[in-house]
């Protein structure tokens, strides 16, 4: 059946209107996006690199970081792109043949040459920071520690990077840079808190405290609520326009390897060639050469003359006895401040959340106590360690055939030591325990002092908030697209209302 003439005209008018509108719409979008892209071309990506060697007491790690040059004062832009474990022990262990300390770094330095593009190598800063192992060596024999550092320096200077020096960092620096690293990675430094001023009582997101457990020393760093009574433990930072009064302390000899040395030194009997050790699983045995045991600064307090050179350590896997032995290395009897952690060291009340890394993480992760999605109470953690200690060594070895024997054999001691250090040493209780997160990496970068060290030395953390930058390229394009859509929509509405009137006039609708 034939349609009436008016209906046909009406349909054709609407069709034309839609075709023209569609055409205009597509044209407008294409024009605006093209203009936005061409006129506001992003700058070519200028990536910068930085290299830090963490010369720890137990081993050396090399870290490579990268960041976009144009955003270097923002927070959270520096990313770890590579980590290389140096083969062999920490550089302080080469004190008898210092030239080998530098050579040991070759494999990782060669790897760094492969990671940093050739055209960036000359401008890439290279730092080496040595921690507690070298601190101990320099206390016992400063000449030897200088020789080790020279050997390292001679080797690092051979590479095409911008070598900035090798030095022993202080325990205070180690604590402070660890704190900066985790708060930088967690994005705690830059926050728009202007709106918070309307609500007096409300505070911005607080920084995390940092707990680092190495082989020879351990650090605790946090922003306390009360005054810091001892100047040695007090640091002041102004970062991104905010001031921070930070408490930090580094306990030399309380890293997990040196804590174990303290236990051996205290428990070995002058004439016994056997040490029944409750901190190792039943069936585990280890030979310990004790000739140099008491030459170490960390064991000086337990000095005694021995008639033996070797002692066989035999595990008895007795958690309660192990705990009793471990607690003896924390002296809590004297304190000249209003409160102390241990060994007469001032410590304010614990405050806020804490990130615990290095051996805190390695050990708790192995014991399945580090899962943030499935947090365990302090009581659960104690029970887990107790159970692990009671397991026979053969059974443990069969279950974890790929784990390094040194690490596996020490988890009973390490678990007991960590819980004692946190609870008895630092004063965490069942409630504050829940504020500890055991972390290895944060947003792909290892938690540790190296990133904070590099950020500080390259002046990447400004004291004041940098002025806000004009819109980024992506933001500019998005803004143009949204405004063009709004514009087209408005035009469309106007057009349709005009068309409606004309069509009504012509009797089309
Ligand atoms: N279970 C386990 N232990 C590890 C691992 N890597 C290192 N450790 C041990 O954990 C302890 C701390 O290691 P690090 O944090 O590297 O210590 P460090 O930096 O050498 O020592 P400091 O100079 O005191 O900081 C040492 O006893 C290491 O032997 C690992 O992957 N797993
Ligand atoms: Ca360390």
UniProtKB/TrEMBL annotation:
Belongs to the GDA1/CD39 NTPase family. ATP binds at residues 215-219. The keyword Transmembrane applies. This is Ectonucleoside triphosphate diphosphohydrolase 1. One of its GO terms (molecular function) is apyrase activity. The chain crosses the membrane at residues 17-38, 476-496. Homodimer; disulfide-linked. It is found in: Membrane, Caveola; Membrane. GO terms for cellular component: caveola. It catalyses: UTP + H2O = UDP + phosphate + H(+); UDP + H2O = UMP + phosphate + H(+); CDP + H2O = CMP + phosphate + H(+); a ribonucleoside 5'-triphosphate + H2O = a ribonucleoside 5'-diphosphate + phosphate + H(+). Catalyzes the hydrolysis of both di- and triphosphate nucleotides (NDPs and NTPs) and hydrolyze NTPs to nucleotide monophosphates (NMPs) in two distinct successive phosphate-releasing steps, with NDPs as intermediates and participates in the regulation of extracellular levels of nucleotides. By hydrolyzing proinflammatory ATP and platelet-activating ADP to AMP, it blocks platelet aggregation and supports blood flow. It is a multi-pass membrane protein. Its main location: membrane. Its EC number is 3.6.1.5.
């Amino acid at each position: 059946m034939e349609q009436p003439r008016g209906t046909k005209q009406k349909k054709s008018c609407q069709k034309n209107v839609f075709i023209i509108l569609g055409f205009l719409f597509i044209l407008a979008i294409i024009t605006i996006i093209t203009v936005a892209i061409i006129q506001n071309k992003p700058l070519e990506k200028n990536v910068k690199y930085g290299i830090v060697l963490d010369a720890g007491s137990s081993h050396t790690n090399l870290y490579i970081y990268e960041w976009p040059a144009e955003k270097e004062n923002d927070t959270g832009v520096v990313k770890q792109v590579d980590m290389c474990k140096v083969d062999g022990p920490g550089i302080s262990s080469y004190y008898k043949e210092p030239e080998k300390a530098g050579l040991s770094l070759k494999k990782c330095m060669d790897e760094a040459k492969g990671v940093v593009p050739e055209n960036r190598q000359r401008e890439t800063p290279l730092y080496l920071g040595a921690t507690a192992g070298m601190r101990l060596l320099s206390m016992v024999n400063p000449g030897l520690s200088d020789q080790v550092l020279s050997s390292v320096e001679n080797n690092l200077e051979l590479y095409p990077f911008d070598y900035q020096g090798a030095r022993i960092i202080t325990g205070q620096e180690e604590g402070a840079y660890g704190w900066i690293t985790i708060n930088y990675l967690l994005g705690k430094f830059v926050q728009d808190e202007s709106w918070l001023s309307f609500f007096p009582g409300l505070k911005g997101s607080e920084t995390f405290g940092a707990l680092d457990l190495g082989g020879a020393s351990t650090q605790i760093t946090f922003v306390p609520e009360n005054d810091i009574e001892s100047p040695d433990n007090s640091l002041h930072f102004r970062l991104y326009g905010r001031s921070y009064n930070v408490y930090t302390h580094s306990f030399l000899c309380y890293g997990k390897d040196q804590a174990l040395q303290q236990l051996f030194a205290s428990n070995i009997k002058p004439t016994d060639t056997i040490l029944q050790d409750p901190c190792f699983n039943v069936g585990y045995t280890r030979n310990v050469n004790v000739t140099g045991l008491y030459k170490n600064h960390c064991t000086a307090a337990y000095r005694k003359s021995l008639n033996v050179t070797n002692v066989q350590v035999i595990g008895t896997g007795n958690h309660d006895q192990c705990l009793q032995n471990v607690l003896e290395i924390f002296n809590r009897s004297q304190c000249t401040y209003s409160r102390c952690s241990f060994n007469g060291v001032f410590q304010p009340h614990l405050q806020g959340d804490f990130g615990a890394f290095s051996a805190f993480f390695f050990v708790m992760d192995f014991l399945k106590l580090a899962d943030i999605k499935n947090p365990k109470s302090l009581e659960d953690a104690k029970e887990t360690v107790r159970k692990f200690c009671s397991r026979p060594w053969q059974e443990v070895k069969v279950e974890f055939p790929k784990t390094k024997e040194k690490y596996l054999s020490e988890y009973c001691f390490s678990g007991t030591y960590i819980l004692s250090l946190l609870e008895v040493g630092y004063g965490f209780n069942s409630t504050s325990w829940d504020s500890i997160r055991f972390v290895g990496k944060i947003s792909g970068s290892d938690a540790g002092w190296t990133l904070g060290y590099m950020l500080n030395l390259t002046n990447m953390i400004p004291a004041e908030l940098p002025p806000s930058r004009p819109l980024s390229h992506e933001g500019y394009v998005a803004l143009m697209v949204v405004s063009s859509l709004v514009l087209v929509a408005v035009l469309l509405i106007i057009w349709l209302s005009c068309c409606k009137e004309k069509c009504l006039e012509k009797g089309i609708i």
